[in-house]
Every structure is written in structure tokens, then in C-alpha cells.
């Protein structure tokens, strides 16, 4: 699925099953909550925090998909074409960081 297809799929789902989009501010709060859920799993599963029994059943891929879903909602609501935005961002990184990481002694 392309980013465009994902944006279209989310839009159709929101307008049919979901009835309407939540406000942009509500979705921003939801995005923050979803990122927090990813952070919790990462800190406990891959970081130094111990994983609680209640966290063991959490599906990291599902939580990341939740983040992507809400991000797509926000893009749709604000008129952002994620394909175009991602390409521009990649172009920026390729120019700005062309040698940055190769020259970083900390990465050797």
C-alpha cells in the first residue's frame, strides 16, 4: 500500500465507519498517547526498564500502526500529501546529511 492509498483508505474509513474526523487538537492528543504506548514498550522491551506482565502481550507493530493511523488522520485533516512531504524530507536529508554521518567519528 502506498502512502496515498493509506491516506485514501483512512479517509474513507473515517467518513463511513468513524462518521467524522475528531478535531485536529483531539487527534494531536491521541497521537501523543499512541506514541507514549510505543515508548512504553520500547523502554521495557529494549531498554533498561523491566517489562511488567501486563506489557508482555502488547504488540509493538500494532501500536506503531496506531501512530501511523493518527498521523495519517492529521495529514488528511491538514491537507498534507504524505508522499510529497516524505519525498521532500528525504531530499532534504540527502542534501543536508550527505556526509554528516560518514564524517561522524561517534558512528565508527
From TrEMBL:
Q: Residue limits of the NTP pyrophosphohydrolase MazG-like domain?
A: 23-99
Q: What protein name is recorded for this chain?
A: Nucleotide pyrophosphohydrolase
From which organism does this entry originate?
Answer: Nibrella saemangeumensis
Q: What is the lineage of its organism?
A: Bacteria, Pseudomonadati, Bacteroidota, Cytophagia, Cytophagales
Amino acid at each position: 500500500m502506498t502512502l496515498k492509498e493509506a491516506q485514501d483508505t483512512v479517509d474513507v474509513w473515517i467518513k463511513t465507519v468513524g462518521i467524522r474526523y475528531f478535531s485536529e487538537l483531539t487527534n494531536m492528543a491521541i497521537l501523543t498517547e499512541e506514541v507514549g504506548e510505543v515508548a512504553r514498550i520500547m523502554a521495557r522491551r529494549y531498554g533498561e526498564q523491566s517489562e511488567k506482565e501486563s506489557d508482555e502481550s502488547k504488540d509493538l507493530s500494532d501500536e506503531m500502526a496506531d501512530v501511523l493511523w493518527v498521523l495519517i488522520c492529521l495529514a488528511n485533516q491538514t491537507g498534507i500529501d504524505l508522499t510529497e512531504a516524505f519525498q521532500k524530507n528525504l531530499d532534504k536529508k540527502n542534501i543536508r546529511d550527505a556526509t554528516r554521518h560518514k564524517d561522524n567519528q561517534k558512528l565508527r
